[in-house]
Amino acid sequence: MQRSPIVAMQERQETPTGGSTAHARAVNLRPQPWRWNHPRVLVEHPDEAAGLAIASGLRFAGYAVDVCPGPQGRGQCPLIGPEGCAPAHDADLVVCCLGYEREAAREVLRELRTRCPHVPLVVETPSDIDADLRELLDGCHQLPAPASAEQIVAAVQSLLGQATEESPSGA
């Protein structure tokens, strides 16, 4: 029986004394151009811990992953600007978990659909979808919110296929 990437990753993080090697630390998420040859997945999630958990599962499954918090506060997402966002443009798939009750999140999704029309989108969707959001989500792979990291990894694998059997070094 094959273990899921998330379960296997969590088992590897356990120390012999039963404690976890993972510890809380401040991370400044600033997506950069891709450095790996594996299929590239951009994870957009405003919750840092949740975004990093999804990224860990995807990395363990063999994908190159970048994490972006999406539009924060009054700041504008680079995707909306004239130069766009290199990680989004170069991704093989984008996981969108931005909470689409906010107009700023919908604007990011619109820009992804416009600027990256051939990039598959896995979108975490609320149960209550209005007509505008339903139209915006047409053609996206939808997962009900809140989606678990395992559900997201499974969706990515179904759309991109298995990246590798083993975890890549450094990705």
Count up the domains. Answer: 1
What's the CATH class label? Alpha Beta
With strands numbered from the N-terminus, the spatial order across the biggest sheet is 2-1-3-4-5
Find the count of extended strands (DSSP E, 2+ residues).
5
Helix/strand order, N-terminal first: HEHEHEHEHEH
How many H/I helical runs? 6
Proportion of beta-strand residues: 5-15%
Specify the helix fraction band.
25-40%
Report the principal-axis shape: globular
Rg calculated over all Cα atoms: 16 Å
**Overall average pLDDT:** 80
Q: What would you give as the CATH superfamily?
A: Response regulator
Spans of at least 5 consecutive residues with low confidence? 5-24, 165-171
Task: Outline the structure in words.
- Strands 2-1-3-4-5 form a five-stranded parallel β-sheet.
- The protein has a single domain, classed as 3-Layer(aba) Sandwich (Rossmann fold).
- The two termini are 25 Å apart.
- The chain has helices at 5-13, 48-60, 86-90, 103-115, 131-137, 149-160; strands at residues 40-44, 64-68, 93-96, 121-125, 141-144.
- The protein has 171 residues and is α/β, with parallel strands linked by helices.
- The chain is built from six helices and five strands; from the N terminus they run αβαβαβαβαβα.
- Helices cover 35% and strands 13% of the residues.
